Description:
Layout: E1 19-24, E2 30-31, H1 32-43, H2 52-66, E3 69-76, E4 79-87, E5 91-99, H3 108-119, E6 126-132, H4 133-145, E7 149-153, E8 164-170, H5 171-189, E9 203-208, H6 210-217, E10 223-226, E11 237-242, E12 248-261, H7 263-274, H8 278-285, E13 291-307, H9 308-313, E14 325-327, E15 341-342, H10 347-350, E16 355-356
Parallel strand pairs: 1-15, 5-6, 9-11
Antiparallel strand pairs: 1-3, 2-16, 3-4, 4-5, 6-8, 7-8, 9-14, 10-13, 11-12, 12-13
Amino acid sequence: MSQTKLFTEISSGNGNGAYYIIKLTNEVTYSQQTLKEFKKLVGESEDLYPGIEGWFDEKVMPGIKAGNRYAYLVMHEGKPIAEAIVKRGEKTKICSLRIRPAYQNKSIGPFLFAEIASQIEKTATHVHFTAPESLVAEREGMFERLGFVKICKAKKIYRPGEDEFVFRGEKDNFKRRAVRLHVLSKEIETLSSVDNNNEGKKSLVMSIRPKYAKRIISKKKKVEIRRKFSEKLVGSTVFIYASSPMQAIVGESTITSIVHAKPRDIWEGYNEQIGCSKTEFNEYCRGERMVYAIVLDNLLPYPDPLPWSIFSAAFDAPISPPQSYRFLKPTGFSSVKSFKIIEPRDYKKREAEQIILL
């Protein structure tokens, strides 16, 4: 793929259960069936947005053909489940983003926002969209996490009886936040379902005091000391949780080795990488005959700390921050093993139907 690889490749086989995204541009022709499904999905909002089908025929399709709009159609088992329509330009506009109810809260939104963010032109200065007051009440928190600010009431009302509000975000801030939100979804999607007694790679959250978490992120601390741990966790992914008052995930890393030894030997071997004074080390290890030195590598700092409330919300049931560490179990989109952007040049490989020019 020539675009940002935000999605994994489609699995081989008969494609049953596969998720994939078709990008609609003016660069290729599409089948009548695809366009019919696209229009049908958009038209399902007619009761909320009277006249949306006319807008689709008069604005969306001509805009795609002219190259000033593009769209995404998310498919599952050959059926459309979500769509997004974007208007290009210096003031890029997300015109529509809809996910069928049965597929909401399954990380599809972060995928779409991240892909939209990756495609914004260099000439664009900001991104904006409008939302009705009922949706604002429900989703304003997510809009803020993506870097959007509510700036005013829209002049045009799309839903009868509801005010429409304009949200705007600075381009680079939106791109950074959208990709970060996607990365989080992707990480949670691929977490290993774990049992504390099982061997193998795990995914876990490790609670660390803010000053030490900052030292890890700045690469001044590469070894974490714990009284209790397991040597079986080598290769595991660690989400670094900076405890109170930050209470946020600040990055992630990989455990490359674990040494279980006497505190004296650990200090002699790793004192320059532990990121604390000998007094602090001795205080922590007081009364312990053996401690664990956990070596961290492949650090991925987050540009902005991710509040625990947002991280926890990605799971079906809220999870509490750990006192020391805790394993993570996947939820949400974990059953999806394949997700890909279908590039315009690859589209004909997937369509054998009669095609028409947009």
